[in-house]
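User: I'm putting together notes for a lab meeting next week and I want to include a structural view of one of the chains we've been expressing. I don't have a solved structure, so I'd like a prediction I can at least talk through. The sequence is below, exactly as it appears in our construct file.
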Amino acid sequence: MRVWILSLYFISLNLYNSQIAQELRLNPDDVQPMTEQWRGGIVARQPEPFLSGEVEGDEVYVVAGHPVIRGFLMRLKTRPPRMAVPAEGRGTLENEKPPIFGMIQRGGTVAVRMLENVQPATIQPLIEPFITPGTRVYTDEDDIDHRLPDWGFDHRTVGHGRGEYARDEDGDGFHEDHVNTAEGFWSWLRSWLRPHWGISQEKLPLYLGFFEFVYNVRRRGRVLLGSLLDTLLQPVACPQNPI
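Assistant: Thanks for the context. Below is the predicted structure for the 243-residue chain, given as structure tokens.
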């Protein structure tokens, strides 16, 4: 029990698996399933975010490949995860630059998910469960986002492609049309992911879900441990035995 709780504490400090193994004097191959169970438990128990008011939507691309299985060994990509918009075209799962779509309520919570691709058919079923109909949604000018009014949202845009990063749409002197909150969120996510080099596409949603929890509880470092324990002690409802 002492080892398990300490491993959770080190996760709250955002240590990567090799560091945790060194601190606990364990084999790294044993630490990885431990940390995956912890993160999986958090993702399964955290409440689904519901966004309203003013929401920003934006996407970034993470370099994340597929693990190669040879016997009992898994060789992950050795380059650290980077967040960058590809110079040409969009990232996809196939070219190992999976798109990450984030929806963040100003002053509120965030929902972040890995996508197969950035297309309206992919984004619509992701947006509708999380954002209240009628909500004002701010995005960069992009063809995939132009259908937001058809989906029941008040859509405002800025044109990053032409050097515009904030717009005063109603002439009141406040440039409220922007996605700067989302840009700040990506910077924090980029920094948080950096120590965890070699994350595969199969594991990336687990890390994104865990970071969503970290952001939404507004705690980091040592004080995060209490929130992690409180959440892990919550039961998980299932269709066969609802709680």
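A couple of points you could mention at the meeting. Helices lie at 2-12, 17-24, 28-45, 120-127, 180-193, 204-217, 224-232. Residues 1-45+203-243 form one domain.

User: Perfect, that's what I needed.
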